[in-house]
Design goal:
The chain is α/β, with parallel strands linked by helices and 230 residues long. The protein is built from 7 helices and 6 strands; from the N terminus they run E-H-H-E-H-E-H-H-H-E-H-E-E. The chain has a 6-stranded mixed beta sheet with strand order 3-2-4-1-5-6. Helix 2 crosses helix 3, helix 4 packs across helix 5 and helix 6 crosses helix 7. It is globular and about 50 Å long. 37% of the residues are buried. Belongs to the phosphoglycerate mutase family. BPG-dependent PGAM subfamily. Keywords: Gluconeogenesis, Glycolysis, Isomerase. InterPro entries: His_Pase_superF_clade-1 (IPR013078), His_PPase_superfam (IPR029033), PG/BPGM_mutase_AS (IPR001345), Phosphogly_mut1 (IPR005952). Its EC number is 5.4.2.11. Pathway: Carbohydrate degradation; glycolysis; pyruvate from D-glyceraldehyde 3-phosphate: step 3/5.
């Protein structure tokens, strides 16, 4: 009965300032750091022990993982970082204040960009100074797969290969896994795990710093799901 714990990173500095973040590498806020540590304390209280950890290549998720593992006395476990668990890329919206964007394009349009399953945001060109193509952490990727913007559908398409190649095999081997990632990469993963429809996934929210625990049987079917409250 393998277990999988998902944690959306604690509040980031741009969550606090209400900016579109995406692949921009911002840090945790003071509140976000405490949320990550509290997640670790809840994990320890629940007696959860892990064999493998996964996270993105973005600081806010990496630090969340480390704080949670440190608080649960498991900082030593094997850890893998991958761009496939990055937040959804918000394209040319990245860095913009969400309220200001709503004034510019209208509440309805911004809501569609944020929550729609298959509508892309305005794209960022590869030669823009804010493009991930300019970031050394993606230097080993084929430039053709570095996004200029993503919706949840595209995010799901890049998350699932990592699930199939790494996470699912771990769970089938009976390993307990923890993933610290982002609201949309975890929404994509949740959609796949729970077979949530394109329409219903729009309403799913991932709370910052709240561990969600799945239990699987030997056929990788979910037998239990709980949120670790205080």
């Amino acid at each position: 009965m393998a277990k999988l714990v998902l944690i959306r990173h604690g509040q980031s500095e741009w969550n606090l300032s209400n900016q579109f973040t995406g692949w921009v590498d911002v840090d945790l806020s003071e509140k976000g750091t405490e949320e990550a540590k509290e997640a670790g304390r809840r994990i320890k209280k629940a007696g959860l022990e892990f064999d493998q950890a996964y996270t993105s290549v973005l600081t806010r998720a990496i630090k969340t993982l480390h704080y949670a593992l440190e608080e649960s006395d498991q900082l030593w476990i094997p850890e893998t970082k991958t761009w496939r668990l990055n937040e959804r890329h918000y394209g040319a919206l990245q860095g913009q204040n969400k309220a200001e964007a709503a004034k510019k394009w209208g509440d309805e349009q911004v809501h569609i960009w944020r929550r729609s399953y298959d509508t892309l945001p305005p794209l960022l060109s590869a030669d823009d100074e804010g493009s991930a193509a300019q970031d050394r952490r993606y230097a080993n990727l084929d430039p053709r797969i570095i996004p200029g913007g993503e919706n949840l559908k595209v995010t799901l398409e890049r998350v699932i290969p990592f699930w199939e190649d790494h996470i699912a095999p771990d769970l089938l081997d009976g390993k307990n896994v923890i993933i610290a990632a982002h609201g949309n990469s975890l929404r994509a993963l949740t959609k796949y795990i729970e077979n949530i429809s394109d329409e219903d996934i729009i309403n799913l929210e991932m709370t910052t710093g709240e561990p969600v625990v799945y239990t699987f049987n030997d056929k990788l079917e979910v037998t239990d799901k709980v949120k670790l409250d205080k």
